[in-house]
């Protein structure tokens, strides 16, 4: 299998899945292609060989389509799992591909142009040629089948899980106070987590924070956790126009042991994304004990269940109104927290690994029948 740079949503999905498979599968040997950073995130035993090929940027396409097939042949690989939307066009093994979302087609304007062109070209042949196509939610599975109906009988849903630290991280008030002070966070605050890029809908969230204060009379700090992504000029223009710079804190990347405290201490966790293949921060927030506001669309409705307040992500008024309702209803926030604990327990990386291994078996059997 191949995996890239970690700690984005996709990166966490890959690293947690690989670690879970290492815990549960004692029958097979694995070769993982990753970056040096990726290697440092994994916790693998001797059955897992890790390779960190040197790839000058930008050469993903060339490497995947030329060097990788040669490596698969050299190492006598029986099955290849492309964990980043694509697989080699030269098909030498049984193959499985993970599709995290279909935003390269449905929300292409929120992506960088070069990546959009690449994935729009490479996802269709990957879906056509893979013995199994893994979707990380029922919503994503439906989106794949709608665009590629011929693949419907090969699409398998493998939902994500929740890292145990979000359930079990120490509830230490002194440590939490230190974390909040270090990131210059003032209570009460609204928290949002995710790479800073257009699909996360931060521009509307910030406009909603302004409305929360000007219309509803509720002044709050917004804390945004995540690495800088792309196409964020509009976001910072919105901040300037709304005069909100002094009430928004961008922390950058935050390690899990700090993030747990930020989840637990927030008044509301707000995630009004325009579209998500799964939405890991939603289940992380629930596991850590935060009341959640998220979007009534894509996989977010599915992942949230009855354990979150839902809003229309394209309506500033809806986002602000739902935030105000939550802030003014502490009893309802408490109910959502209790429901959130139960909902988060439904998502397990060990179950993700079990479904993935079953897909591997089916892919190998299908490849064998085809000769």
Percentage of residues in helical conformation: 40-55%
Strand % is 5-15%
**How would you describe the shape?**
globular
Strand order of the largest sheet: 9-8-7-10-11-12
Number of strands: 12
Class of secondary structure makeup: alpha/beta
Examine the coordinates and then state which fold CATH places here, giving the name of the CATH topology of the largest domain.
Rossmann fold
Question: CATH superfamily of the largest domain, please?
Answer: Glycogen Phosphorylase B
Largest sheet: 6 strands, parallel
Q: From the coordinates shown, what is the CATH architecture of the largest domain?
A: 3-Layer(aba) Sandwich
Q: What value does the Rg take, in angstroms?
A: 21 Å
In total, how many domains does the architecture comprise?
A: 2
Indicate the low-confidence ranges by residue numbers: none
First-last Cα distance: 22 Å
What do you see in this structure?
- This protein has 371 residues and is an alpha/beta fold.
- It is built from 16 helices and twelve strands.
- It folds into two domains: 9-161 and 349-370, Rossmann fold (3-Layer(aba) Sandwich); 165-345, 3-Layer(aba) Sandwich (Rossmann fold), CATH 3.40.50.
- Helix content is 49%, strand content 14%.
- The protein has a six-stranded parallel beta sheet with strand order 9-8-7-10-11-12, with helices on both faces.
- The longest helix is centred in the last third of the chain and has 22 residues, at 349-370.
């Amino acid at each position: 299998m191949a995996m890239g740079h970690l700690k984005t949503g996709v990166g966490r999905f890959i690293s947690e899945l690989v670690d879970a498979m290492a815990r549960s599968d004692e029958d097979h040997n694995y070769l993982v292609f990753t970056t040096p950073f990726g290697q440092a995130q994994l916790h693998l035993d001797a059955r897992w060989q890790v390779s960190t090929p040197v790839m000058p940027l930008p050469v993903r396409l060339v490497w995947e389509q030329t060097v990788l097939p040669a490596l698969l042949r050299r190492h006598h690989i029986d099955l290849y799992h492309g964990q980043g939307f694509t697989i080699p066009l030269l098909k030498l093994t049984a193959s499985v591909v993970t599709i995290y979302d279909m935003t390269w087609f449905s929300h292409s304007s929120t992506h960088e142009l070069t990546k959009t062109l690449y994935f729009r070209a490479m996802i269709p042949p990957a879906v056509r040629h893979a013995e199994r196509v893994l979707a990380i939610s029922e919503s994503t599975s439906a989106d794949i089948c709608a665009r590629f109906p011929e693949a419907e009988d090969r699409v398998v849903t493998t939902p994500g899980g929740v890292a145990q630290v979000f359930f079990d991280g120490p509830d230490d008030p002194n440590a939490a106070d230190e974390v909040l002070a270090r990131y210059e966070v003032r209570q009460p605050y609204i928290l949002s987590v995710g790479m800073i890029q257009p699909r996360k809908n931060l521009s509307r969230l910030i406009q909603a924070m302004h409305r929360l204060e000007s219309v509803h009379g509720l002044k709050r700090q917004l804390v945004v956790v995540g690495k800088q992504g792309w196409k964020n000029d509009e976001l910072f223009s919105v901040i300037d126009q709304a005069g909100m710079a002094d009430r928004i804190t961008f922390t950058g990347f935050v390690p899990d042991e700090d993030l747990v405290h930020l989840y637990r201490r927030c008044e509301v966790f707000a995630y009004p994304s325009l579209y998500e293949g799964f939405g890991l921060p939603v289940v992380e927030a629930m596991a850590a004990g935060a009341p959640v506001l998220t979007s009534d669309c894509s996989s977010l409705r599915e992942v949230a269940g009855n354990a979150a307040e839902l809003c229309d992500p394209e309506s500033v008024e809806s986002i602000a109104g739902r935030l105000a309702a939550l802030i003014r209803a502490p009893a309802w926030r408490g109910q959502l927290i209790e429901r959130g604990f139960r909902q988060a327990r439904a998502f397990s990386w060990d179950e993700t690994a079990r479904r993935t291994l079953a897909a591997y078996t089916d892919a190998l059997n299908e490849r064998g029948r085809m000769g």
